[in-house]
Every structure is written in structure tokens, then in C-alpha cells.
Amino acid sequence: MSTTKLSIKNLYKIFGPNPKEALPHVERGVGKTELLEDYGHVLGLNNINIDMPEKKLQVIMGLSGSGKSTLIRHINRLIDPTAGEVVIDGHDVLKMDDVELRKFRQNNLSMVFQKFALLPHITVADNAAYGLKLQGISAGEAKERAQKWIDRVGLTGFERHYPSQLSGGMQQRVGLARALATDTDILLMDEAFSALDPLIRTDMQDVLLELQSELNKTIIFITHDLDEALRIGDDIAILRDGSLVQQGNPQEIIMKPADDYVSDFIMDINRSRVLKVETVMSSGEKGGSVKVEGGEAIESALQKLKDSPTKAATVLKDGKPVGAITLSQMIEAIERPAPETASGNVYR
Amino acid sequence: MQFFSFGEFLNYLATAPGFVWNLIVHTFWLIFWYLPILVAQIIWSLISFIFYLPIFVYKTLVWFWTFFGNVIEVVHDYVFIRDWSWDDLGYFPANRSSSTAEILREGIDQPFARFAGDISVAVKVALEPLIEAMDWITSQLSAIPWVFLFPAIVALVWITSRNIGVTILAVVAMLYLGWFGLTEPDLNAAAAAWETVALMIMSILLCVAVGVPLGIMMAFSDIIERSVKPILDVMQTMPSFVYLIPVLIIFGVSKVAGLIAVTIYAMPPVIRLTNLGIRLVAFDVIEAANAFGATYRQRLTGVLIPLALPNIFAGINQTIMMALAMVVIAALVGAGGLGQLVLQAQSNTQLGRGLEYGFAIVLIAIVIDRTFYVIGERMQEHRRVGH
Asked: Does B294 touch chain A (CB under 8 A)?
């Protein structure tokens, strides 16, 4: 486990006329509906504790209204919490004054937005250089550095276009270039790809993963799409009604869902594509001549095993055998679990 | 400018380079010397006005005190001195000739007359630079010979608008004004058209200089918005003749009175639309500016104002149109210019002359309005190139 870059401790956010007064009720355990009906306040976030690893892609997932967008806005304090701490590199963001906060936002955090939020009256080049301009970097250097990122996200030749002349996918590339150009360690992405159509979305996920393999930034990625979360996330936190339901890597989430909410969430996903061989294998045992990689998805391991279906395959990791896996183990793992309750789909 | 012989004209043409030079020098002088001094003068007047403020507040309080004293007296008389009878239910106790209404009106008139006497000097001093500037613009425009002035104005319209239609319109307007002799000073009066143009320029500048910042403040504060909006409603619906009365009491028949009349009437649209424009800027763009660490000023000048420009310009256009609609009423209180000629035509029931001056006002209005409109469009290039 890598070191913690960012940790959120006992974070509460209550919306309403007098949040401080409503806070003790929430700490006592009053739920979202009850708080709204009896006290007239909306519970945004309820006692959130998350440690986010450095240089990894942390996904925060939940349905609309679960508080995920509220949570990400606490990290750069676009929203002030009712109570709690947000510690980044040992600095408590919530204790900063206006000037410190502004410097911190300029130099340590950058953000990509769901609706792109580009400035419509300036060109792509100026938009990409916007963060640098705010950092106080000279126009010439800002332009040069922004150009590098415009090229990197594949928008060469569109520098003098205005955002309204670009398609949604291209606009979000500008948003990504603007965020990356500032050269901050932390990248906040608020449903960055949700407004794009599915093919473009996959495309942008590839762009992000490729950039991440090279840049190793700490990325906090908000989404409501589980496939996206499983595809790109190193670590996933699931929110529901403002509370943290489960945090873990994708394999853990699928194999050991914390409650019905999470199991309903993962019900419809393509398990064979997400689950890895090493998650399912019997470790320490010896297998036959067919060899599969530990980090491989079950989908491709099944293909390798189709010629000798009765024998177990040897699982390799870093070239060494670490365990064995059989066809029936794999089939069992990819079986779609039945809904546990009659009202299984109540959250959808 | 008149020529009595061809030789005189040739002589005049020989001095043409000098005139061009003069024009350039005057323009530079206006921008780099006169305007800064003007601004300093206005600021100084405002500062002195602030020192005058305690006295102003005191006088205002005295005014209200006298006024409400009168009201209480009237109510007291009505309730305790007059005999009350059942007949009172048959009609509403209003009577224009009764002494009660008279006392109420007196309660406003007398304290205001005293109050006006006290503040008129301070306000006159504060507005003096504006009047000076207006006179200066009129005299400069009247002094430059038409052979240079007309092309210069047409060129200015072309440079700012880059639009052939608006430029042709400017040519037509110049020819019209020249043909009817509105651009040449009379023996005892300044050139009517330039007087009106000077009034327009100053009142529009005043409206924008006060209206845009006020609109921005309204957009940032709900309290300011709630308190300013009813005032704007009153400014727009109160018949202008009514607020001309206090203006006349304070300033007498003068250009200041005309300027204030036009400004009060024309300012509301630019305030309203600036407020609206800034409030309509998409929240996610403001949030993005915040997320990248923009300061208050960077947010205002880099995001809010540019994105509110379409609405601000719509407001300025409205203001220009309303200002020009006021020139005749402004002439009633001494603004002069084309409005005064219209008034003369009206009192002599001369339809022909009325139309002549009326169309002159319309042409000036259209040229200024279209020029501003096209400038506004050009400043928002990004809106024209959607896909």
C-alpha cells in the first residue's frame, strides 16, 4: 500500500438554515429523511473517513444525490464543510485563509468538470493556459506549456478555435489539458466523462489511463458509472445518501460487497471482464501445462483453457507460479449473484 | 465656416494639413489631458460632497421632520377638531380644494425649497465638469470644418464598426444634418446637431459609468438588488415632468437640468441588464475559475463581465435609445440642441420643420445605436462561430 496523499476525517456537511445546530442530531445517528422531515435540514455528507493513496486513481462512486460531487468540492473547498478535516500533504485545507487557499488551488489542485466549464469567450489555447495565467506565469511561457498539453491530448490545430466550435469529447480534452497544464499533484475529476457518449467516453478513459501511466498523479475521479469505476479505478469508495458504504479495490468490491446496496450495484456488470485470475485462484497449488497471468481477466483466461478444459491452469505472477485455477472455479466466479432481497432493485 | 470666394476656399484648403494636425492634436489632448483632468475633477467634487454629507443628512432629516410634523398636524386636526358624522361614510374624505391637501403639499414644497437652496451649490460644483465637457465637445465639433469633420466621423464609425451598412448610414446622416444646416453654428446659437450629440455622449457616459458598477453590485448582493429595483421602477414610470421640478428648483433652466433629466430616464435599462447579465453567467464556469484559484478581480474581469457582455450591451443600446427619446423634454429645461428646434416647430405648428428635426434625431440615434451594437457583436466573436 502506498502512502496516503489525502485524508478526509469525520467530514460532515449539512445544508440548511442552521447546519451547526443540526449537527448534533446527525452525530446522534439521525438519518437523511428524518433530518429533512423533523429538522428541515438536508444531510449532504455523513461522517466521511477516506484515506486516498498517493499516485493512484481513487474513484468515488454513488448514484445522484449520494453526495459524491459535494465530497469532491470539499477537497478544494469550493464548499465549506459543517465539521471535519481535509488533510492534504499534512496541511488542513479547512484551516487556510483566503490567500493561502487561492495559492493552494493554483499550485496543488486542478479540476475537470462534468459540463467542461470552459470559458466560451477565449480560444482553446487561452483556455488551456488559464490555470497558468492565474499562477502568474508570463503569457509566452504559459502559451508554450499549454501548447504541450494541447498536443498531448490530441487537439493540435484547434488552438485558435473557440470551445463552441468543438464537439463534447474535444471540449473535455481542452478541460483535461487545462487541468494538466498547471502541473499539480492532485487532479480532481467531477463526473468528467459522464456527459460524453459511450464510445467517446471509452476513448477518453484510454487517454486518461495512458497519461496516468506516465504522470502518476493522485487522481480523484467521481462517477456514477460502475463499469467506468472498475475499468480505471485503483481504489473505489462507494457513497450512499452521504455515507461511505464501502472502500476497496475493484476485486474486493465484486467478491465481497459490503451490503445489499453494493451487491445490487455490481449485479449487472460483466464479471468475467473485471475479475482477475489471482482473485479467484487457489494459491499455492500446482496446475497443468496451460499458463495464465495472475493479473489477467477471467475472460481471456477462459479462452486459453478451452483446449484442455478438465485440467487446472498454472497461474504465473512475475514469471513464477503462484497457484492454480480450474474451469469450474472461473465459471463459479463469473456467475451473476441472485438479488438477495425481493426489493433488490429499490436503489435503482 | 463660410467662404465668400473661390480664392478664400483655396486659401482654406491650403491650410488643410494644419486642420488635420489640429484634429489629431485635439483628439490626443482630449484623451490624455482633458479626460484625466475631468475624472480628477469629478472625483474631487465627490470627495468634497462626502465632507458635505453630514450637513446633507441633517438637512434631509429636518425636511422629513417638518414633513411628518405637518402630516401629524393634518391627521390630528382631522380626527380631533373636525366634527365627525355618519355622512363621512357616503363619500371618501378627499377634497382637492381642502386645506388638508394644501398643507400636505406645502409640507413638501417649503422644506424642499430650503433644502434645495442648501445643496444646490454642492451639486452644481459636482456636475460642473460634465457641463464643461459638454460645451467643449459642442464647440470643438462646431469649429472643425465639415470637409474634415464629416469624413472623420464616417471613418470613426467605420473603424469601430467595420460594417459597411452602418458606415453608409453614417454618410446619409451626415449629409442630412449638413443639408438642413444643423451642423453649422448660428449667429447666437451653437450648432443644434452637435449640441444634441454632446448631450448624448455625456449622458450615455454618465449612465454607463454609474449604471454598470451599480448593476454589478446588484448582481453580487440580493439586499442591494431588492432596494435598488423599486427605485428603478419609479425612475422609469414617474413622469419625467415631475422629477424635472426639483431639478429645476436646484439648477434652474440650464444644461445641467437637461443632462440630469436624460440620465435619470435613460439609466435604468443598463443597470437592470448588467445585473441580469451577471446573474445569468453559468455557475459552472464561475466554479471553474474558483477551482483554479482566481481572485475576486480576475473572476469579475475575466469571467463575469465578458460573459455578461451581450446583456450589458443590450442595456447600453436601450439606454442610448431612451436618451435620444428624451432630447425634446430635456430641451424644455434648457438643454438646447435639436430638441429646442422641435419645441419651436411645435409651438409654431410647423409640421415640415418638426419632421426635419425629428428625422435628424432619429438618424443620430440609429447611427450611435448601430455603431454600439456592432462593437458589441465584435467583442463577442466567439458567439458567431458556433458549429
From this structure: yes
Rounded CA gap, A348 and A54, in Å?
33
Beta-bridged to residue A317, according to DSSP, are A320
How far is the C-alpha of B276 from the C-alpha of B229, rounded, in Å? Answer: 12
Q: Across all residues in chain B, what is the average pLDDT?
A: 83
Q: Measured between alpha carbons, how far is B71 from A189 in angstroms, rounded to an integer? A: 65
* End-to-end alpha carbon distance in chain A: 33
Round to whole Å and give the CA distance between A70 and A155. Answer: 31
CA distance A78 to chain B (A): 7
Give the best residue of A102, A109, A190, A191 to mutate against chain B (max B CB count within 10 A).
Answer: A102
User: Which backbone phi and psi does B78 adopt, to 5 degrees?
Assistant: -65, -45
Contacts of A115 in chain B (CB under 8 A): 284
Smallest Cα distance from A152 to chain B, Å: 21
Query: How confident is residue A186, by pLDDT bands cut at 50, 70 and 90?
Result: very high
CA distance linking residue B207 with residue B268, whole number of Å: 9
Distance from CA of A195 to the nearest CA of B (A): 14
| Interchain contact B385–A (C-beta under 8 A) | yes
CB spacing of A162 vs B302 below 8 angstroms: no
Residue type at A134 in one-letter notation: L
In this prediction the ipTM stands at 0.84
**What digits encode the pLDDT tens for the residues B43-58?**
776 777 677 778 778 8
Alpha-helical segments (H) within A87-154: 98-107, 124-128, 130-135, 139-152
Looking only at the bridges linking them, the beta strands covering A291-293 and A313-317 are parallel
Is the CB of B287 inside 8 Å of chain A's CB atoms? yes
The identity of residue A156, as a single letter, is T
Strand partners, A297: A276
Edge-first strand order for the sheet with A218-223 is A109-112, A186-190, A218-223, A57-61, A235-240, A243-248
The residue that leads in pLDDT, B104 or A123, is A123
Dist. CA B209–CA B215, nearest whole Å: 11
Torsion angle, alpha carbons of A81, A83, A84, A86, to 10: 20
Q: Cell triple for residue A340?
A: 438477495
Nearest CA in chain A to B287: A78
Name residues whose C-beta falls within 8 Å of residue B135's C-beta, 6 or more positions apart in sequence. B198, B255
How big is the A-B interface in CB pairs under 8 Å? 78
How far apart are the C-alpha atoms of A3 and B117, rounded to whole Å? Answer: 77
Q: Are strands A83-88 and A91-92 parallel, antiparallel or unpaired?
A: antiparallel
Model confidence pLDDT, tens digit, residues A97-137? 999 999 999 999 999 999 989 999 999 999 999 999 999 99
pLDDT of residue B360: 92
User: Is B387 in Cβ contact with A119 (below 8 Å)?
Assistant: no
Q: Across the interface, do B382 and A109 touch by the CB < 8 Å criterion? A: no
Cα distances from A77 to residues A19, A92, A321, B287, in angstroms, run: 17, 11, 48, 11
Q: How far is B381 from chain A (nearest CA, A)?
A: 8
Q: Do A117 and B285 touch (CB under 8 A)?
A: yes
For the entire predicted model, the pTM comes to 0.77
